[in-house]
Write a structure and sequence with these properties.
The protein is mainly α. About 65% of the residues lie in helices and about 0% in strands.
């Protein structure tokens, strides 16, 4: 059964149309990668294929912009900032691990789907993002400062490292790691005995 031909797309500015198309393409990246077709894009965005090329020079530019949007750390920062610092330490660590695992699984999926293409140049490590992450974690774990037996920054590094490693299929193919196991291990490693 063939897909219905989309009706004429509503009028939008070029900038709004680009954003609308990117909104539709970003979720397709992990499953389609660079093999996504203009038909896939048009169907997902509810537009005619020709509309794509009124917003983007070509499919490659669209994919690069979609990858750039996917790699943007802002949604992850926003999710981390929503964790209440007044919660129990274990609850906060569990929330951080869940957010990191979701983020890293998505990134690994997109990079794999793209055939290990490098991310866009503008998404190399940004020192401002590192500063923001440090500020978020300093605020989040401030109520628990006396419970850490190692430097808080190092503790966050270990949490990030374990979440990343547990998101890599090559490391977890023969082992089903869940968040609870990771949180238990993390807390045993960063919390003073008897606390």
């Amino acid at each position: 059964m063939s897909s219905p031909i989309p009706s004429r797309a509503p009028r939008m500015s070029v900038a709004d149309r680009r954003e609308s198309i990117l909104d539709a393409v970003v979720p397709l990246l992990p499953s389609h990668g660079a093999d996504i077709t203009t038909k896939d894009i048009a169907d997902a965005a509810g537009i005619a294929e020709g509309t794509i090329f009124r917003a983007f020079a070509d499919k490659d530019e669209l994919i690069q912009q979609a990858v750039a949007r996917f790699m943007d750390p802002e949604p992850t920062f926003c999710a981390l900032e929503k964790i209440d610092p007044a919660l129990e330490l274990e609850t906060k660590v569990r929330a951080v691990v869940d957010i990191f695992r979701e983020r890293f699984s998505g990134v690994v999926g997109v990079v794999s789907a793209l055939g290990h293409r490098k991310p866009p140049h503008e998404h190399t490590r940004d020192p401002r993002a590192d500063e923001r992450a440090r500020a978020i974690f300093a605020a989040l774990f401030a109520p628990d400062a006396d419970r850490f037996r190692i430097d808080q920054g190092l503790a966050v590094f270990f949490i990030r490292l374990l979440a990343f490693g547990s998101s890599m299929p090559m490391f977890t193919a023969d082992r089903d790691l869940d968040t609870e196991q990771l949180v238990d291990f993390i807390l045993q490693g960063i919390v003073k005995e008897g606390r």
